[in-house]
């Protein structure tokens, strides 16, 4: 067959495919993105790759069931939903059918290994039971409060005081990321990297973690997943950078594990008393393998570092836009801490209901994790009638859910903490508990986030400590800044603010 005949045959086959697609195959869902033969929705996906959050939100809002299906060349068929009934079905009712799945665990596998946030089945269940026991321990809570007291009062507040006296702008997002990194390393590893102290040399471990997180996030955003897989196989570009970064992380954590075991052995020999309550020491005492311990603590460092710092950044941005909210927050904080000379403890944090409502409202509009995906083990039908095929990627979308009028009402785009407060006759305001399937910021069902309470303690502690001491105003009074979803939702360009000492 000559070249002309071969080309003519290919064109004929393609024309036949178009005819079959148009007249025989079922049409694409009416509320999904525009679809073309063979390539699916690759073109609109690529065109909207820089605004996927808002694009997905608009598609969901136009769908009667807040669900759409997208398929594109080089990627799995994906069901995207903001429907609370669907989400309850995925995360609870039919939980066994929706593991994270190999396509997802492959993306984060190099960084997280087989840690709790990147595992399924029996391995996940075993780690979940172990972590659940540790997170309910009072000693770990006490360690968190102690770390917050040391890091916030010992470093964060002095840094902000210095900035205030020098009358210069500072990036709160950068400060909160540094702060959260120190705190989570203290709790997970029992070490203090001193990342918030800019006078100390920066640790290679910190840079390696940033690089590994960035490349891992880019894997998930690739229009065609084969791109990063080929780069990894060849050891080139960003995949080589990831390999080097992960190597540095493993070396750093393995060294800490080795030294901690030596400390524990010394204690066992009675030569020196070494008491530690951090997660690493508990995992070692439990007899876990070095690899399992390494993967577990790396998972917790990643989760604890970026989520709370992202939420705090958006919290302060939101409060700066609403002086009335700031005034009510300050009243509550002062009332609770008046007898404690502005010091914050665990019990006083529990009393700050309006502060918690403001944090919930912040994460409704700007969830730290904007979307999460599972992969179907078997065919299924969601409560809204959407058919799921075996192997499909099923994504629930907290960012879009916070913007659904069907869930939150016509004022869904407004920052209104009062929507979280209920008032009983003759009683004060209490926090209204909302179904986790309408507000899956901390996941829900069997995989609900174990660190939820710890995250609220940390965020409330920082918010109270900062607001009680400083007036914060944005240096750039721009409209809503651009949100950049990597592994968590960061603010593009950071949050530049100027501070003044609060006079009360």
UniProtKB/TrEMBL annotation:
<dbReference type="GO" id="GO:0004497">
    <property type="term" value="F:monooxygenase activity"/>
</dbReference>
<dbReference type="GO" id="GO:0005506">
    <property type="term" value="F:iron ion binding"/>
</dbReference>
<keyword id="KW-0503">Monooxygenase</keyword>
<dbReference type="Pfam" id="PF00067">
    <property type="entry name" value="p450"/>
</dbReference>
<comment type="similarity">
    <text>Belongs to the cytochrome P450 family.</text>
</comment>
<feature type="transmembrane region" description="Helical">
    <location>
        <begin position="6"/>
        <end position="25"/>
    </location>
</feature>
<keyword id="KW-0479">Metal-binding</keyword>
<keyword id="KW-0349">Heme</keyword>
<keyword id="KW-1133">Transmembrane helix</keyword>
<keyword id="KW-0560">Oxidoreductase</keyword>
<dbReference type="GO" id="GO:0020037">
    <property type="term" value="F:heme binding"/>
</dbReference>
<keyword id="KW-0472">Membrane</keyword>
<keyword id="KW-0812">Transmembrane</keyword>
<dbReference type="InterPro" id="IPR001128">
    <property type="entry name" value="Cyt_P450"/>
</dbReference>
<dbReference type="InterPro" id="IPR002403">
    <property type="entry name" value="Cyt_P450_E_grp-IV"/>
</dbReference>
<dbReference type="GO" id="GO:0016705">
    <property type="term" value="F:oxidoreductase activity, acting on paired donors, with incorporation or reduction of molecular oxygen"/>
</dbReference>
<protein>
    <recommendedName>
        <fullName>noroxomaritidine synthase</fullName>
        <ecNumber>1.14.19.50</ecNumber>
    </recommendedName>
</protein>
<keyword id="KW-0408">Iron</keyword>
<feature type="binding site" description="axial binding residue">
    <location>
        <position position="449"/>
    </location>
    <ligand>
        <name>heme</name>
    </ligand>
</feature>
<dbReference type="InterPro" id="IPR036396">
    <property type="entry name" value="Cyt_P450_sf"/>
</dbReference>
<dbReference type="GO" id="GO:0016020">
    <property type="term" value="C:membrane"/>
</dbReference>
């Amino acid at each position: 067959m000559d070249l002309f005949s071969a080309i003519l045959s290919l064109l004929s086959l393609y024309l036949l495919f178009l005819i079959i697609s148009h007249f025989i195959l079922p049409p694409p869902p009416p509320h999904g993105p525009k679809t073309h033969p063979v390539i699916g929705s690759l073109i609109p996906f690529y065109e909207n790759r820089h605004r996927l959050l808002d694009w997905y939100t608009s598609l969901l809002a136009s769908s009667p069931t807040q669900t759409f299906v997208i398929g594109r060349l080089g990627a799995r068929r994906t069901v995207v939903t903001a429907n609370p009934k669907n989400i309850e079905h995925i995360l609870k009712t039919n939980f066994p059918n929706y593991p994270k799945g190999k396509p997802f665990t492959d993306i984060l596998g190099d960084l997280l290994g087989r840690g709790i946030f990147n595992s399924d089945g029996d391995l996940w269940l075993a780690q979940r039971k172990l972590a659940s026991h540790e997170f309910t321990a009072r000693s770990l809570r006490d360690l968190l409060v102690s770390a917050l007291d040391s890091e916030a009062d010992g470093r964060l507040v002095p840094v902000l005081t210095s900035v205030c006296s020098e009358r210069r702008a500072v990036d709160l997002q950068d400060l909160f990321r540094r702060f959260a990194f120190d705190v989570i390393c203290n709790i997970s590893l029992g070490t203090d990297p001193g990342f918030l102290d800019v006078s100390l040399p920066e640790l290679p471990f910190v840079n390696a973690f940033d690089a590994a997180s960035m490349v891992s996030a880019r894997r998930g955003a690739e229009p065609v997943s084969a791109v990063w897989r080929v780069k990894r196989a060849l050891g080139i570009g960003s995949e080589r950078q990831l390999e080097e970064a992960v190597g540095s992380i493993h070396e750093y954590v393995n060294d800490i594990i080795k030294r901690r075991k030596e400390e524990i052995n010394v204690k066992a020999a009675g030569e020196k008393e070494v008491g530690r309550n951090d997660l690493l020491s508990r995992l070692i005492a439990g007899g876990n393998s070095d690899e399992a311990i390494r993967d577990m603590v790396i998972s917790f460092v990643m989760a604890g570092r970026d989520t709370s710092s992202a939420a705090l950044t958006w919290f302060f941005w939101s409060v700066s836009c609403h002086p009335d909210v700031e005034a009510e927050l300050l009243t509550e904080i002062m009332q609770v801490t008046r007898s404690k000379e502005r010091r914050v403890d665990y019990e006083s944090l529990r009393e700050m209901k309006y502060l918690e409502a403001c944090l919930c409202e912040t994460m409704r509009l700007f969830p730290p994790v904007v979307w999460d995906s599972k992969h179907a083990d078997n065919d299924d039908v969601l409560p809204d009638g959407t058919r799921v095929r075996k192997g499909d990627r099923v994504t629930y979308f907290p960012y879009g859910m916070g913007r659904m009028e069907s869930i939150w009402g016509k004022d869904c785009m407004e920052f209104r903490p009062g929507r979280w407060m209920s008032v009983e006759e003759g009683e004060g305001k209490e926090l209204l508990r909302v179904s986790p399937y309408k507000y899956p910021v901390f996941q829900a069902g069997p995989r609900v986030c174990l660190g939820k309470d710890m995250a609220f303690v940390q965020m409330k502690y920082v918010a109270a400590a900062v607001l009680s001491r400083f007036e914060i105003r944005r240096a750039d009074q721009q409209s809503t800044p651009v949100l950049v979803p990597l592994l968590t939702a960061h603010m593009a360009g950071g949050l530049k603010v100027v501070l003044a000492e609060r006079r009360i």
